[in-house]
């Protein structure tokens, strides 16, 4: 297989990748990896501790709560049937380490992206393979690393919002990088007016700027996507600056929002953050949550094991 996995970008896409929300084409489906049999086999063999199994519930204000599940030990085909049947959303983390053929394809994809996008030099890439049910929705959230998502099966709609104080308050990203709970990600339905909306079909990929909040709804079909997180020096420094700002804010010091501060100021804050992290001033509040169900069981009643969602990662 010598053909490119990412067809050549035009000048517009070269300039837009990672800077503005955009879609592009990919040829990961040519690898033949994503049929039911291969997916079922991976569901069965992927380590249980690298599974996130979630069902989201939405209240009248569209604020989300989630229940988490465990993989259990049903055979792969039964696990796949369970995903196809309901509202569950699953991610298999660190897929590149546990599915070597897919890991190799990811390497090629990122080499080809680096070739075409000026200055794009990710220092770390990790993949989540995400099978999700026809009725699954992922609530409004933001991810600390850069993300690009390769859509593989089914249809879904993604809303991508601006990275500004109205949609992604600095205080929220500070809490996310400090691993504090972020139940206050302030989604309101009227924000959709500011979103860019894309309908994704197999063979499409989507990218957005660092920390752009987004939400996703499956459009009635079983979906499979590969979400790739990447760190660049810019994302590392910006997240470090958010961490330092979060500490400064607790101390009552004035802060300049890290996503909008000049790079030199971000770099200084990042330097401070490495020392602050070593000092252990912030205790993570991410605990191991109660698992409310096992994949393949009937869904639990929506008042059992509910927690506010954290940033997806
Ligand atoms: Fe995300």
UniProtKB/TrEMBL annotation:
Protein origin, superkingdom: Bacteria
Alphabetical list of InterPro entries matching this protein: JmjC_dom (IPR003347)
Descriptive protein name: JmjC domain-containing protein
Residue span, JmjC domain: 88-247
